[in-house]
Specification:
8% helix, 2 helices, mainly beta, 18 strands
Length: 314
Amino acid sequence: MLFMSLLLLVATALFAQDAPKDERSALSGFAKFPVNIRLAQEIVTAGGYTMEDDGAQLADGDRSEALRTTLNLSMPIYKGKASYINFGGFYNFHNVQFSPPKSGDAYEIDMGREHHTWGLQGIYMYGGKLWNRKFTGLANLRGEFSESGLERVTMFAVGMLQLKRTEHSSLGVGAVLLLNTSSPWPLFPFVTYRCKFSEKWSLDLMLPQLYINHHLSTKDKLSAGFSISGEHYYISPGRADLPATCMYSRSNLRPEIVYEHRMTPLTKLFIKGGSTICINSRLYSSSGNSRYMDISQKPSFFMQVGVSYGIMGM
């Protein structure tokens, strides 16, 4: 699911435009090494699952403890007065095993164990005025590869209009357009609201995520809230009734606590922990256009540690 990634990109652009004076020196210093880097390692506890097709149960079993590594790199290749273009790549590694029961009538499908997904993407961002209000737009073109080669090309666009801004708060609305993805909603709106209650407390609402932040110091922040995130990778199911390559996709609701430590003005360490509640988990064609089965899963717990550098890398 790309929703949260899109909102974070747009919100980062707004942050860069509205940065206070004491942070502008750090942002201008970014030009000396203009690469965005984000590396994270995550572990999710084991749990049970059930495979279903149109409500009929096919198999049930246990999912092993899952490990996930994500790496994102990007850098600007063009910068204009109101727009810029970023080009970069990404790599995702999943290590997880779905183990069905050893029974003669069980639905046998090879979900694999180690999964590698990588690719390239270009991002175009525009910041200007619309109806005399601040507007931020983003367009992304992304190509994904697995061990079998090119799997799919996805495109999306985001537009956000800032309706109100005061010294302590801001309100915005926008819309996301998704093309050639597994999302059942190709176009949907969203709302963003930010409020600073004091020097220590603030609120970030970017539906479907909400966080209450407590600034422990100038370098440390503790947040509590929830977000919706997604993950996917490609498998070779080894069945005559399925394509040679399929895409496993999962969307999660995550109540979590986040600790962030700013090591340098542009480098941040983050630690996240909480619960992973599966909203939907499905097997699609590699293009994401055809759904074959649902894979319901029980809630589990996760821990993530990572580091980011740069503006959009955060």
